[in-house]
Amino acid sequence: MSSALRLRMSFASLLRRILSRRFLKFGTVGASGTVVNLGMLYLAQEHLFHAVQSPELRLNLSLVLAIFFATVNNFFWNRLWTWADRTQHHHRSWLYQFGQYTLACWLSIVLQMLFTNLLAPHFYYQVANVIAIGLTSVLNFILNDLWTFGRVKLLRKAAARKPD
To answer: Strands, DSSP E only, in the chain?
Structure first.
């Protein structure tokens, strides 16, 4: 098989994965995480850290708490719903898997900030951020599909069973 054909097949496989029902579930979970994030941000800003005098410190403490709760929410919903059919991932500690999930998310967050800053001089900043969110959501989904929730392991098992 030529390398061009393999590349086209890999791209087609990637595109199918992105346009799949699983990706829609991933997006739905992400939307719920946004609600959790905004709710916790408000609660922390207005009530939990209200006594913190520095507005910058109060905002940063609130953001840390909001991002933490949204990440926990998204991890468990993705584990229980988006990738529920991947039961082989349950042999690992959920804490270990949460670490993988968190690393994938933080990579996406860093890239989102980078892409937004690179695109902002050329687009309205909110449009730049939406583009960056779209790009990094796809990356986040692929990382979690392959690494956190075990697609790589499934592919290795299938390759080991297939005769040469």
So the answer is: none
Distance CA 144, CA 107 (A): 11
- Residue-wise pLDDT for 114-160, tens only, equals 988 899 899 888 888 888 888 888 899 999 988 888 765 555 555 56
Looking at the structure, do residues 163 and 106 belong to the same domain, yes or no? yes
Residue 102's CB is within 10 A of a number of other CB atoms, namely: 15
d(CA 133, CA 46): 27
* Dihedral (CA of 92, 96, 102, 103) sign: negative
Question: Are 150 and 103 found together in one domain?
Answer: yes
pTM given for the model:
0.74
| The two structure tokens encoding residue 2 | 């030529």
State which of 55, 82, 109 marks the end of a domain.
82
Residues of the domain holding 45: 1-82
| Buried-state track 83-95, b at ≥16 Cβ within 10 A, e below 16 | beebeebeeeeee
> What single DSSP character describes residue 54?
-
- Which domain-ending residue is among 50, 65, 82? 82
82: its two tokens: 């988006």
The identity of residue 42, as a single letter, is: Y
